Structures are given as structure tokens and as C-alpha cells.
């Protein structure tokens, strides 16, 4: 059955609940109390040129409401985008957890997911270097469960009491509020150099993980070790992993910065468009399970959120699948007002003593009280559980329920004892962990190793991934004004990997350090993005055309891509049509000047003699090709189109020559002259599926 947005047959419980709150524009204009309004353009005044009268209640209401339209943005994760969908478990997990939604494979639990950047304001660009939030609200029949994760499996700090310090350091600096949504500034790196527990996370943030190609192409992690609890009250440690069906893929740094200007909504738009097209993003949920008895089996502390549990030690078991298939109707009402809280749990899922998680369990509720203006934010449509709510909470700003009766206390006899206490089988039961200790302010010794896993991460990466990390450190530290801060970070890097530290030091003009420790040589290949499978599904290809294009080549390419779910945008010198080589008209999708190479995954130049001549003299078209090459994107050219590549400032490549009949591929540049169009299309699609051509030599390309 197709999963269309408004097909009532497929409406899940959450969608049906929201339906009661949806409002469509219709009928006559009114005030907010329903009085009909026949003029909303002219305020009531004493004469045509006289003062506005207080009596104009419509004017006052309109302006007053407008004046109050903004709420505080989230203190972190202010910029985001979200969508609805469902989660379905594969097999019952009763051995580990009693959570109902993880035990009934026939059940589709409605979800809302909000993706976000962390440091930037609500209006900042999507493609900045940053961690991405990946927060999922499961509207389960036992209440809302929030899995509030990130796309990086570790965190900057170990104890939540450091969170304000960390966030103050990464946010724009307080004296001039510069820079927006950037980590490349003195205060962040000063924090880092004085807080070595950040080093593992900083390696991830300097990696390509911080530049996702799409929200649909990033992993998600619960970060903390949580606890599953089964019906017998037995606990199992659990780490959550979301794995995207499309693979995990990133942009390149230069590209992200250009997209920031060309389309600051790049990731938001991508998510929205994919869902509108019916190309629903999908993730598999996996878990790493550790028996309680193995708590101390590892050379790091399971409670330390700056550590991963390497997949090679404890494999990830897939347990279910999530599909996002419906865009919100209203950004503010839904995506902005959704309120996540790590302490929103259901029976069968519990916390551990991870000190970061413990702090979060305080902070998220607290933050919603100020952000959403009072204690009734759970009544906002997007936040309402589909499970029945029977609390004795009353009153407060924006109370929406009309509670009837005389009682709002427990115990009562006047309302027949309702609501009464839940039974053993339905109530949340806190895991009965034995705790005893002295009250101390002291970080456990088991939290003190800050470098081993930073090195492990670095060792696990492909050469191109490592090169990106080094370049990122050089860029970021190159913006830092204080020399001692640069030196401090290099000193920590020297404990991660000496060669990396030397490379970075040389790039930022500080003295390369002496070798401090030997690299332990261990790795965890699962963390490398080079290991992720790819697909062309939903990839965007730009086809550059001008008058004289051989339209048959474009049409054949477009249908070959469509067969695999990829999209071709035909870009012309102007909107409308171009003439083809046989004199007919061919419709273009967009004018080349309204988009940019950075918004596409690959570029194709079709043949046609006049087409090639026109594109060869078009600086914009040549810029598309040059930038795409610089950003490691597949490029294909057919017949005369091959000549256009020769006009772009690329390194010398083995391109198809006239008289050749066959496909040539050199560094992901695929060309043919002659009849083997199908071979070209196939090679192009295979190359596109690999996302980028990382072994390409791009240093000399001026873009
Ligand atoms: Fe958050 N975090 N956080 N965080 N966080 C918030 O809650 C906080 C942490 C994460 O799309 C805030 O509603 C503290 C880790 C996401 O609405 C706030 C600490 C992880 C989102 C808050 C952390 C996250 C938030 C701001 C350290 C990954 C966006 C607005 C103890 C596992 C949720 C809000 C959304 C948002 C506090 C650390 C992820 C202030 C105190 C670790 C995805 O409550």
C-alpha cells in the first residue's frame, strides 16, 4: 500500500490525533474571537490623515499577536528539521526488555524525528561543521519514549556539569557574537586544549562526520550506555545505533561552505523534498548488548560517554526499522514546539549512572519550561502521547484540558479513587540497582584515559579521511588568534598520533612536537565511512545543456537514472527550452544560474556540436565542471561534450578521443565517443553509487 501523506486509510494513531488540531484556511476573515473583519489593510483613524484610534481592537490584536510570535530558540540544537514516520521491531526482544513497542513485530509505532545542528542559531546554515542531533520521539502505547541522540557516537565532555562551559565556548563569542555556527574560534579551542576529555570527540568533529551530505545519510547514536530491563527485572546494558539505508556519506569542506551561501537550507530541503517525492528515508535500529556481569570487561568505562563500544568487540544487532514518510504541516507548531526529554522513558528502558545522562535527565525538562512558556507543553499537539494521560497535574499557563470533577489528588474517594495506581505489569519500575558510596566531587579513575580511543578512531580511517581530519584541524586552528591555544591543541594531538600532530603543527606555524607516545596501532574499521555501502537512489545529477544538444542522450540518461531512483536536473542557459541538434525544442528544468554545482552529486555533459561550442564558452558551465571535479564528484561527457571538459582547468585526464568507440574512465571522469552510450551510463551509475571519487588528484584545480 502506498504511504501517502493524507491517505486516511494509512493514518496512524498520532496522525489521527493531530487531525483534530489541524486548521485549513477557509471562509471569511475574523478576529481571534471570531468577529468578522472586512478591512485588514487600513487601521481605524480619525480622518484619512489623523491618528490611529485605540478603539481599533482588530489593529491592536493583530499587532499584539505579531509582537509575541517568537519564543526563545533552543539554547543548543536551535536549527533543525523534522518529519513523522513509524518504527517497527523485527522480532520480540522480551529476553532483554519488556518495552511493548520492542516486542510486537506487527506494530508500527508512530515517531517524530528532529535532526539539527548544535551551535548555530535558528537561522544559521545547515552545512556547517558541527555534530548533528538525531532525536526520535516514539509515540508508544505505553507513553512517549525519546531517544535523543547525535550522529557521532561520543561526546565532548564526561560530566554534565561541564555542559554550560562547553556550550559557552563553542557558541559565538560573547563580546561581538562572532562567529555564527562555527567552531573555528579561540574560545572553543581554548576549552579543548584545557579539557583533554574532548579529544576523542574533536577527532570525530574534525572528520567528515561533521559534514553530512544529507540527514538521510547519517548514522544516529544514543551515545550513552542505557539499560534494557526485562519482565523479570533483569538488566542488560544497551547502546543504540541508527544506520541509514542510503549509507553514511559526507560533503567536502569547501563544498559545505559554498552551499552555506547558495542554499543555507540544504539539509532541511533535502529531507523535505525526499519525503514529498515519496523517497522515504529509512534507518535500521541496532543495539549493542552487554550483560550486567560484563560491566567491567572493557579497557574503558561503559558509563563514560566519550568512549565507543567498538563493534568488533560487541557487534551491533539489528532490531527494527524506521521510515519517515510525512512532512509536518506547520514548522513552528510541530518541529519547533516538539519537546524532547531524555527522561521520557517507557517500562523496559532505563538509565545508567553515566554522569552526562544524569545531567540531561534534569536539563531537558527544565529547558522546555522556559522555551515553551510553562508546564503544559506536553499538551501541545506534537508532544501529546497517544497513550492515555491521567495525571493529577492541574492549571498553569496554556492549560488545554478541561478537567472535570472535584479531585486532583491521590488518594481520593470522591472520584472513585481515580486515577488509581498502575499495576505491576503496566507501571514503569526503576531498575533496582544497588548504589552506595560517599558523597564526593571526583571523576572516576576509569574515566581518565582521553587518548586511546581518539587514536583508535584515527587508525581506523582511510587515507582520505585522515587527510580531511588534518586539513580540518589546520583550518580551525588557523583561525585561532592565540598561539598558546594552537600549541596546546597540538600537544594533545601528539598523544593521539604523532604524525598528525606534526602535520597540523607545520600547517599552523607552531613548532612540531617531539614524539610523546607510540601509536597503539589498534583500529575499529566499522567507524570508517569508507566501509559504508552506497546507492544512487535519490542522488541528484546536473545535466548541462545549451542549444544544439543531442536530446536523445539526455532522455536515455534520465530514464536510466530514474530506473535506479536517481534524479536528473537538466540545466540550461535560461529557463524554458533549448533547441536540439535536430531542430526541435527540449525543455530544461532550471536555468543554470539559479543553482550551483555544489547542489548536485554529479555532472553530465551530453553531446551535440553546437551544444559543446556554447558550453565551452560559458564560464558558468565550466565552473560547474571544475567545482564538481574539485569536490570529487563523478563527471560524464558524451561525444562532443567531451570537448567541453577539455576547456575546464582540470589536470590532464585520459578522455575519449575522436575515433574511439568505447568508454574511458579516469579518476571518475567517464567519457565516450561513439555508440557505447549504455556502457557510459552504466559506469556513471556505478561511480555515482560510490558517492565520491576519493583517489582523485584535486590539489591543482582552481575552485
Ligand atoms: Fe542535549 N540539550 N544536552 N545532548 N540535545 C538539548 O534541550 C543537554 C547531549 C541533543 O531536536 C536542549 O530541548 C545537556 C548529548 C539533541 O529538540 C537542552 C547535556 C546528546 C537535542 C540540552 C547535553 C545531546 C538536544 C536544548 C550534557 C547526544 C535537540 C533544547 C549533560 C546523545 C533535541 C532542548 C531537539 C537539546 C541539554 C548533551 C543531543 C538544553 C545539559 C550527549 C539531539 O536541554
UniProtKB/TrEMBL annotation:
Coiled coil: none annotated. Residues 30-418 form the Catalase core domain. There is a cross-link at residues 341-364 (3'-histidyl-3-tyrosine (His-Tyr)). GO terms for biological process: hydrogen peroxide catabolic process; response to oxidative stress. Heme binds at residues 74, 114, 163, 360, 364, 371. It is an enzyme of class 1 (oxidoreductase). Residues 1-50 are annotated as: Disordered. Keywords: Heme, Hydrogen peroxide, Iron, Metal-binding, Oxidoreductase, Peroxidase. Belongs to the catalase family. HPII subfamily. This is Catalase.
